[in-house]
Amino acid sequence: MAMTKLSDLGPPIPGKQHDGEPADERENFMICPVCGQRLDMRDFRQVAWHDQPEHRPLELEVYVTSRNA
Fold first, then answer.
1. DSSP string, 35-58
2. Backbone φ, ψ for residue 57 (5° rounding)
3. Domain segments of the chain: what residues?
4. How far is it, in rounded angstroms, from Cα 30 to Cα 37?
5. Are 59 and 3 in contact (CB under 8 A)?
6. CA dihedral in degrees (26, 31, 36, 38; nearest 10)?
7. According to the model, what pLDDT value does residue 37 have?
8. Beta-bridge partner residues of 38
């Protein structure tokens, strides 16, 4: 079975924390208790995907930009 790509879920759906940005960037991430994948809680696509009771890890794509090329 092919993995679902993050881009298959549509364009990014940014979210924001009600209490503002955390002091530590690592607080934006968590490990999914179902599949063990790390997810960025600022992207609602990832949050919604990992909220499903049964799912596989997402295939994350790496985009090359002028900043990381």
1. T--EEETTBHHHHHHHTSSS----
2. -60, 150
3. 1-15+24-69
4. 8
5. yes
6. -40
7. 97
8. 31
For residues 62 and 33, what is the distance between their CA atoms, to the nearest angstrom? 24
The C-alpha R_g of the chain, in whole angstroms, comes to 13
Q: Please state, in angstroms and rounded to a whole number, the distance separating the CA atoms of residues 40 and 33.
A: 14
The span from the CA of 4 to the CA of 17, in Å, is: 26
3-class DSSP state for residue 59? Answer: strand
Task: Kindly report, residue by residue over 31-63, the tens digit of the pLDDT.
Answer: 999 999 999 999 999 999 999 999 999 998 876
Q: What is the pTM of this model?
A: 0.78
